[in-house]
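Format notes (please read before filing issues)

Several people have asked whether sequences and structure tokens are stored in separate files. They are not. Every record keeps both together, in the order shown below: the sequence lines, then the token lines. Line labels are part of the format and must not be stripped during preprocessing.
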Amino acid sequence: MKTTLPLHPALFQETPRTLLDNARFKVELFRYPSGIEAVRLENARGFVIVLPFYGQMVWDMQFDGQRLTMGSGFKQPLPGKDIIDTYGCFAFHSGLLANGCPAADDTHPLHGEMACARLDNAWLTLEEDRLALHGDAEYIKGFGHHYRAAPSVTLLGEAPRIEIAMQVTNLSGAPMPLQYMCHMNYAWVADGRFSQNIPDSAFQLRTSIPAHVQPTPQWLDYTQQLASAPQALDGLQRPEMCDPEIVFFADNLPQYVQQAEFMLHSPEGYSFVTRFDTRQFSAATRWLLHNADQQVAAFVLPATCRPEGHNAARRAGSLITLAPGEQRQFRVETGLMD
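Then the structure lines:
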């Protein structure tokens, strides 16, 4: 049996309110001092905090006492027009008309319009072993694109993981461009080690330098070495060299495997894991940054293309086009290994 609970902004107050509490799950609603609504979904292993009306960002996540979210100076989500205004979340939806870092010939915001979009509706569904937060948003512009985005976050019964999903439907009578990345900002794991079920040789170092990256001579020397031997960076042993960021790309993932699995292993014994279908996500990015203000080890960011902006994807032939009425679905499982 499935139970549906609609959510409305008026339900959210600064004092947390318990909406549901049973043997497997607990749901709390609250509002941050910044005014942004939040839902805390909890099971026996931990919790996830999701922003139901603000891009359906996953703001924070913790399982088995281990916080999975990047380190940043943000103490709470802040209202903004694009993701740079509130860059402290665990995960956000990058896209959908464009994503990634805009190049000089692009006009879209960093990581696209969906990251901070205001959702029209939000609701919970409860089943015996699944608790999900759903939402939808209709994007429409006069003389422009028209689509429906329907994201969801699902907490699994007794597992220390969640499912992040996105469904996109072109409501226009004209074709629609689509770029999408499930952008998960994992915590930095000191001396952590990467593993995945695709070859190490699949990764290539990003050699372009976006406008927000200010390279140092030491960083330029280090990345020049990595460009010729990218497999040399197989873990997080040198945080000082990840300032500014280091980025790797892997393309055409279906040639290696259909069900991809990427992991980040801690010397303390726990491991982060992300799984996805390469028929949905044909590309992956690895993004590493460690400085005084941000500490993030995004060991895999599943995507439809490289995050180098709309026009780069168009030129590379990796820009998806949705026909009128066409729909695409994406799903990622992520969290702690059991």
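For reference, the curators noted about this record: The domain at 3-336 is CATH 2.70.98.10 (Beta-galactosidase; Chain A, domain 5). The chain has a mean pLDDT of 97.
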